[in-house]
Design goal:
- By secondary structure, the protein is an alpha+beta fold.
- It folds into 2 domains: about 120 residues, no CATH class; about 40 residues.
- The protein is about 60% helix and about 10% strand.
- β1 and β2 form a beta hairpin.
Length: about 180
């Protein structure tokens, strides 16, 4: 019997896409592992050779500002002197070798399973995404073609209006010509 330590929902809400990668912020991971962010980062720094840039990287100030802007729970980082580390799926897997307590290992397994579920969902629904993109392209092209038709219709109406405009009867005074 498998016991779930935490629900999948909170984990999914802590996964962000930064630089095109699905990542988790060091503070969120520390909270899940029930350790301080300082302890997590110290463990990582002692084992930096296990964390290449494809596993972990520091946010830039601009990325941090965007994160703070979009997520109220990070507002305390707004004036922080350092930017947080973020971990990719591979970095999170590596954390289990750095954080050796049983709780961290169990939480890591759940996090990795969440990443796997998200990947499966993406793969399974990729065909739906492609069909939506095709539909959007079709609608865009249709609207574009119709706009051209509307322009042609407007030109034809204007031409007809000019040709069918009644000729002026009488004369134009000097005041009316000015």
């Amino acid at each position: 019997m498998v016991t779930t330590l935490i629900s999948v929902q909170p984990i999914e809400h802590k996964i962000f896409i930064i630089r095109g990668l699905k990542v988790m912020i060091d503070r969120d991971l520390a909270e899940l592992y029930e350790i301080s962010t300082k302890v997590l980062n110290q463990s990582v720094k002692r084992n930096l050779e296990r964390f290449p840039s494809s596993f972990m990287f520091k946010l830039t100030k601009d990325e941090l500002n965007e994160l703070v802007t979009n997520c109220d729970r990070f507002k305390n980082l707004k004036h922080s002197s350092s930017t947080p580390y973020v971990f990719t799926e591979y970095g999170i897997a590596m954390l289990s070798s750095v954080l050796r307590n049983k709780k961290a290992i169990a939480i890591n397994i759940e996090i990795i399973e969440t990443f796997i579920r998200l990947k499966k969902y993406t793969i399974e629904h990729n065909d739906l995404l492609e069909r939506i993109n095709e539909l959007e392209n079709y609608l865009f092209q249709y609207a574009k073609d119709n706009n051209q038709e509307v322009d042609k219709i407007n030109q034809a109406i204007n031409l007809l209006l000019e040709k069918t405009r009644p000729t002026q009867i009488g004369f134009i005074t000097d005041k009316e010509q000015k």
